[in-house]
Every structure is written in structure tokens, then in C-alpha cells.
Amino acid sequence: MSKSELKILCPNGHLGFAPSKEGSFALGKEQHPDYYCCDSGSDDIGPVPLGEDACASPYAWQVHDLEMMLLAAREQNAPMIIGSAGDTGSNSRVDMYVDIIKNLAQKHNLKPFKLAYFYSELPQAALEAKMDAGVEIKGLDNRPALTKEELDATSRIVAVAGVHPFIEALKQGADVIIGGRCSDCAVFAAPAIFEGFPPDLSYYLGKVLECASFCAEPYGAKESVLGAITQEDVKVTAMHPDQRCSIASVAGHAMYERSNPYYEYVAGGLLDMTNCSYEQFDEKTCRITGPVFKPREDPYLVKLEGSGKVGEMRVGIAGVRDPYSIKNIDKVLAWAREQVAEQMKGVDYELHFIVYGKNGVMGDMEPQKEITSHELCVVIKGVAPTAEQAELVATMGTRGIFYARLPEVKGTAGTAAYTVDEVLTARAAHRWTMNHVVPVKDPMELFELHFDQAGK
């Protein structure tokens, strides 16, 4: 270990999901961080992008963030690390990011640098072979173990890497690393562990940096934060002039999203934050001590994410302003369901109504005693094997709201319910088929590491 302190700048909690703010990034660059790191993926976006092997974020926004980071990193000769490329970390998204980096290097006449990248996509045959050999692929979050039927229903699978591919790339002198699907915190923990800092603090550093300015207050997304690690502590500082990393904002971020707020499962083990201590180091900086990383004993488990296509989807939108229809919206939707069922006999379809505005909040078809909103917006989703069938489901579901027959109504009540007269094309519907873990003998077993050169 040569450094007593390591500084990492993170500009965005999800690279490209919305453009990173250049002002706070420039302030972070002035701190001369040792690494520029950012996570670019999430399963929060749902199973569709993975199933369709597509991005959830606009290409131009991803190029913007990569360009901003690459130019700063190469100017200061600091490594740059990206994880879960292109929202999903599939092989094609990794290739896309590698091409972007190469093109940017040419565009800006950058000196040659070593580019590393790894793949996370997993063929079905690899899991089938493990299952045939008697390996149980256990489900997470109360899912049953993986079956051949669910495997067959899966369109695409990615394995979630830990710190190991990043550390191996750094060992081999990589200047820029583009990662496939990986644990969010691994992007930041890996360089800290590689540089000789304790895993306990390194994984916490990853946890606090992974969402960038979400750990700061007041709320402001897509702003840069600077994390610093020593042998004794982690410090995190907000770069935006009007934000600060307070005890409340940092501790709150560390404990969100989990039934047990003191534990975070990360690739390779468990981050125990029970005994974390938070103190206000200065006006904009919070200091953290006390996290404990508990590595998992053999076997090493790798998380798997799989997506499978359900069917084609079309979407309708209906606005309801008639007070009586609003009061009886559950009956209106039930009538619309009956009309779709009558028209779609023998077809394996799905019809979903999402109601916005039930007393100011989003609701579903759960009955409410009284609805006081003056207007409802109903989003209708029709899913079926073919596009034509999905359009029929969505169209009938939408117009069924307009033509609903309420037994107490005499005359035309529907004239007060306004609807669009055509449905909208949407991406195909997918579902998560796989949220499982597979045992491996080597943490690198499922991840292919490659090297290339970029620049002139």
C-alpha cells in the first residue's frame, strides 16, 4: 500500500439515466481524485431492458457522462471504472460502451491507454449443465429453486460480479474498465481493496458512493460526491455548493431499501452496519467508522438475474371526470374487464388497470370507501402473444371505461369520461424469471476479462 488516503469521485448514481451535472463534477475534479467511478445499471428499471437487450437510458446521455469522466480521468492519469454498462450489463451493452470509449479517445486525440472490459452474460446451457450435475440454484426473496421450466422461459441471463474482475483488471494495469453486470458497491470497493484498504471500510465506501448525491441533503440528483477512505474511516463530501453530507442524510441512505436497515448483502458477503458511527467532520462532510464486512464461507455464491418475455404490450390512457363514475370506478373497471374477456375468449392475455388520483395517490382496483378526487387517470396495459391481440385487449379495456354500464345510471354518463381513441405501442412485456444464486469454485468463473488499447 502506497497511499494513506484514497479519494474516489462519483458523478451519478446511475450513469446516463439522467445527465450528470457538470458544475459539481468540475468541483470534484479540482480535488484530484485517485479514481473516477460510476455504476451504470440497476434492476430497478425492471426486466424489459434485459429481456430485449436494450438500454433504458438515452444513448446521448450515456455518451455525455462517459465523455465527461474519460476526459477528466485521462487528464489526471487516474483510472476510470464503470460497472453494469448500459443499464443491464449484458454483453452487447459492454461492447457499446467499449466502442464509445474508443470513439471518444479518437475524437479527443487522447494518448494510448489500456482498456479492460468483462462480460457477465451467461448462456442457458451453462446453468442447465450445473443443474444436470445436481447443483441447486437457490432462489432469493422467497423464490423457489430454479427449475428447467423457468430456465427455458428465460430470454437472457446476467451474473452479478463482485470486486474480483475489477481488481484483476487493475492488477494488469488497466486505465479504464468497463464492467458487465456487477454489484453496485463493487465498482467503488474494488479499487479501495486493490490499494490495500480494509474490506470493511471499502465495502461501506461503495455503499455510500453508489447512489452519488442521494447521500446528501437537500435532495438533488445527479450531483457529484467525493468519497475518501483511510485505514480508520470513510469520509463522504458533497460537491454541489448547496448540498452537504450530514449524519442524517448519510445514515439514512445507508439504511434505505431493506427490511433490516443495518445489513447489506453484497457480492461475496454481508456488510454489517450495526455498529457504524457517524459524525459531522465538517459542514459538507460526514465521517463514518465501524462497519464490518463478513465474507461468505464456501461456496462462493454469484447472483443471477434473468428476464423472460411474457408477450407484446399496448397501452391506453383514460381520463374520468364524471363524479358518479369516479365514485364507482371499481364497478366501471370490472365492467370493462368483462367486455375484454368476452372478446378475447381462448387467448392467453393480461389486462392491467393502474388508477392515478384516488384521493391524490396512485391506486389499483382495491375498493375505497370514498374517493374525493375530481379526476382520475387510468392507464390500461394489454399484454398478449401478438401485437394485434395486445392492441385489441388495450383498446377494449380503454373503451370499456367510456362505455361502462352502471345499473343506477339513466341516460349517457359516459360523455363525462374522456379517453384517447387509440392505444400506444409499448415495449414487449417481460418478467423476472431469475433472482437466484449459483455456487462457483472461483469468483471469476462466470466473467470473461478482456484487454484492448484505445487512443492514438
From TrEMBL:
The Acyclic terpene utilisation N-terminal domain, residue ranges: 64-420
Organism listed in the record: Dethiosulfatarculus sandiegensis
Name by which UniProt lists this protein: Acyclic terpene utilisation N-terminal domain-containing protein
InterPro entries: AtuA_N
Domain of life: Bacteria
